[in-house]
Amino acid sequence: MIRKKVTVQNDAGIHARPASLIVKEATRFESEFHVHMYGYRINGKSILGLLTLAAEKGAELELEMDGPDEQEAMDRITTLFKNGFSMSEE
Amino acid sequence: MQKENAYKTNIKRNGVTAVSGLVMGVARIYTRGNININPDPIDEVRLPDEKKKFIQARKTVGMTMERLSDFADSRNDSDTRDIMDAQYEILNDPELEAMVYRLIDEKSIRAEKAIYDAFQHYIDLIKATDKSFLVSRLSDLRDMRDRLIQNVQQLAVIASFGKDAVMVTDDVSPIEVITFARNGVKGIICTAGGLTSHASIIANAMGIPMIIDAKSVLRTVQDGDTIILDGYGQNVIIRPDDEASSSYTRVIKRQKEEDKFLRHVIGKPAETLCGTKIELQANIDFEDEVLNIEKYRAEGIGLLRTDALLMNAGPLTMDRSRQEHFCQTAYAGSGSGTVTVRLLDVGGDKLLNIKSKEANPFLGWRGVRILLDRRELLQSQLESICRVAGRYPGRTRILVPMISSLDEFLEVKKEFEDLQQTLEKRGVPVDRNIKLGIMVEVPSVALQIRKFAPYVDFFSIGTNDLTQYTLAVDRGNNLISSLYQPLHPAVLTFISMTIQAGEEFHIPVSVCGELASDPYAALILAGLGVRELSMTPRLIPKVKQAIRLYEIEEIREISKKVLECNTRSEREAARKEWRRFYDEKLKEERSKINAL
């Protein structure tokens, strides 16, 4: 299991589109994925869960990845955060 | 409401056969209802069914949703597109599913109530965040909730119809046909006409007889009436009298016996008396059909159409994960057989809005012509296929439709090779043995087939289009439908040329048009040298039976005879003569089998 802290960088925060990008990316991997924020722990493959976090710009989240492809999965998800969820297909 | 002729029996109404067949059943008038949630607890034994209903409704709503994104794209509306994307994820949210299941189990409630409550839970949480960027989107959540509930209730209605149901409705969507099929509906009668092929393609694949354009049926029929759907006679008989029902019952019984008899060939090899093997493969349009591959023992997939994905997705937005999912299902359901994936083969009308209708769509922007103009679509399709192919090495063939020049094929090939390299560099497992082939359906290609042979791994003959282009006959045009003759010597000559080139260059040739599923035509094709025929899986036993009753030499004779027929009446006579002999053969075979 690995963990990593990320910051929401895009102006609009984690609204529907970023959340759907995160889920799309995360479900490509086998690893279980959870997101921690203000003491909550939600399933990162659940878009509704991500939305209920209501993470705005500047919010700090901790990502937790657990499974055979955890490193690659973590890299992909953190890249999404780094790019501010700009459309980055590959 | 008082219906006309409410008391009369034996009322005949004409229609147009979309899927052939003959059934008698109970007429069920199908309409689309309103939302009304029943919160009462139900018996525990029904709970698993409620969960199933949720899953089915989710699938159905997913499909309809994607069609809306189609609209968003045609307007270049990226906001709407984004919402649609998010909705897809919401629909498939694992936590939502878990909650619906939990609610059904813990509270013993119906799926509709559980869905309502689960959505409410999230709506409340999002409201509590008080963040306007989320709260403003709540209407999307409510909308999705309502659509799911509506669908669950529709399913309940259809399921309550029972196994003898013949649906009578104004119009039917492809998704409804799938829902009908899953609930064992016997036949479909629509008052609307001019249904474009998709609902009927699905009905055909599922073996559900269907009559469309039966205009006055809804005015005459009452829910619960006995009804006969006669696809052969292109009509419907409402409240048949004793005489009519017993005569139809006899025909239906004969048909059933025939089907039952054909079951004996299912496990047997598709080969002639002398041992020449003819590979019988499956044409597959959508996921539900994949089960039929195993059921009818198809030897792999000769034609995996990807067009239905586009129907449900938006133009140019074929979601790669959905494409991959579809391919994956097909591979998983076809043992170790070959999977021939055809790239998108649609006309421009499916991609653009109505304004840009073409004067001659069949001679227009379609198939590979679209793919080459919209590279991102081609690339996304190739990528999905190659990624899945990498997981099932040695099984993939990619079929390029509507090729009319070598340049087109070479361009696709280049895209394919570039993509494989990129994937390999990225560390994605790739299959270096993917075969790339073309549809032979344009006369110019058939005429110059030897020029293609050095570059192509296989040929697949599309008899529908090849016939239409060779004979200059639009097969959808009723005025000239009698001119549509797939066994015309000109068409057979093109097929023959393709086979010869195949033999010379050691390239497999298959036929994947409708023609292959007609036993007579299948024999003719085999006689010309075709060794791979692909068809709707449920028609495989019929064709296999025919092949198993002949020596290959006899089959060649049948082909030779038809090639010598210069007129339609000669061809009809030849077919009749064959039929007479074949019926004799069948009779003998039947008594042999029955004696066992």
Overview of the molecule:
The complex is a heterodimer of chains A (90) and B (596). Chain A is globular and about 35 Å long. The model of chain A has no long low-confidence stretch (mean pLDDT 90). Helix content of chain A is 34%, strand content 26%. Chain A has a 4-stranded antiparallel beta sheet with strand order 1-4-2-3, covered by helices on one side. Chain A has 90 residues and is an alpha+beta fold. Chain B has 3 domains: 1-243, PtsI, HPr-binding domain (Enzyme I, Chain A, domain 2, Orthogonal Bundle); 257-276 and 441-596, Phosphoenolpyruvate-binding domains (TIM Barrel); 306-439, TIM Barrel. In chain B, β15 (509-511), α21 (519-528) and β16 (532-535) form a beta-alpha-beta unit. In chain B, α1 (47-74) runs antiparallel to α2, α13 (320-332) packs parallel to α15 and α21 (519-528) crosses α22 (540-548). Residues 68-77 and 312-316 of chain B have low confidence and may be disordered. The interface between A and B is medium-sized, with 22 and 21 residues.
